């Protein structure tokens, strides 16, 4: 797992003056809420994907389509997405707490490792979904 606490080598900590702390705290709160909305979206999509296989099986005429009954990947993929969304929400809470502490200390460092980790996670989830769709279309 990446070291989220280490500051980026190419970006020194940014000083936060006393007159800017309220603005920084509000921006931190908005960022946290955006992460939570993203988490909820991933969890919701995971739920839909998990139920997708069941929906396909119950469609009229599904018995005539051979790949519908042989697919069983929607539940594990959906559950994985739901777990990823929950972990993302925990990371968001941790990052919010860390940033709040840094604002109070007067120095804020960018969290590049966290952004790369989450970007990679979403990319992997997208790749799994694409592979699932391609294989289930056969």
Shape: elongated
Largest beta-sheet characterization: 2 strands, antiparallel
Question: Beta-sheet strand percentage?
Answer: under 5%
Percent range of helical residues = over 70%
What is the averaged pLDDT score? 80
Low-confidence stretches: none
Helix-strand makeup class: mainly alpha
* Spatial extent as radius of gyration: 20 Å
Our count of domains comes out at: 1
SSE topology string = EHHHEH
**Counting H and I runs of at least 4 residues, what is the number of helices?**
4
Q: What is the first-to-last residue Cα distance?
A: 36 Å
Strand order within the widest beta sheet: 1-2
How many beta-strand segments?
Answer: 2
Provide a brief overview of the structure:
The protein is an all-alpha fold and 138 residues long. Helices cover 72% and strands 3% of the residues. It has 4 helices and 2 strands, in the order βαααβα.
């Amino acid at each position: 797992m990446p070291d989220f606490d280490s500051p980026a080598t190419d970006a020194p900590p940014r000083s936060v003056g006393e007159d800017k702390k309220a603005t920084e705290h509000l921006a931190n709160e908005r960022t946290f809420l955006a992460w939570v909305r993203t988490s909820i979206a991933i969890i919701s999509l995971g739920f839909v994907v998990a139920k997708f296989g069941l929906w396909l099986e119950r469609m009229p005429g599904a018995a005539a389509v051979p790949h519908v009954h042989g697919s069983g990947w929607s539940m594990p993929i959906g559950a994985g997405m739901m777990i990823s969304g929950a972990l993302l929400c925990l990371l968001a809470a941790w990052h919010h707490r860390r940033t709040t502490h840094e604002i109070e200390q007067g120095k804020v460092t960018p969290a590049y490792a966290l952004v790369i980790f989450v970007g990679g996670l979403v990319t992997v989830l997208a790749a799994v979904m694409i592979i699932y769709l391609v294989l289930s279309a056969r």
